[in-house]
Amino acid sequence: MADKQSLNSYKDRLEKKERKRYEEKISLIGGRDPYALSKGDLASDNKCLPSVIYIDIVNYKINNNSVYTFEHLKTYKSMEAINQLAGGWVRDVQSMTVNDNV
């Protein structure tokens, strides 16, 4: 995790439109800003993660309202995630339960 100062200022660096969308998004998880969490707030136990199947990912990526088009998701986002995983950027998957949801 990055230092607390840089994480807490993430929202402050967003443009007004993006900040509003970000605040709406984190309101769904009780206003808990994931960038302001400390490592002690999260669990590394895989049993804490929800089960996910292929159709869940398709529904989330394609059928949800998003600022991204289907083509954006098909090309850029998919490859970015794969490259980050393969490049060693993803080291530890952690989760947190908020409002009885992981």
Give a structural overview.
- The protein is an all-alpha fold.
- The chain folds into two domains: 1-41, no CATH class; 43-102, no CATH class.
- 47% of the residues lie in helices and 0% in strands.
- It is built from five helices and no strands.
- It is globular, with a radius of gyration of 15 Å.
- The two termini are 20 Å apart.
Helicity, in percent? 40-55%
Number of domains: 2
Number of strands: 0
Q: What general form does the structure show?
A: globular
pLDDT < 50 runs, ≥5 residues: none
Following the backbone from N to C, one meets helices and strands in this order, namely HHHHH
β-strand amount: under 5%
- Supply the number of helical segments: 5
How far do the termini sit from each other? 20 Å
Major β-sheet profile: none
Given helix and strand content, the structural type is: mainly alpha
Q: How large, in whole angstroms, is the Cα Rg?
A: 15 Å
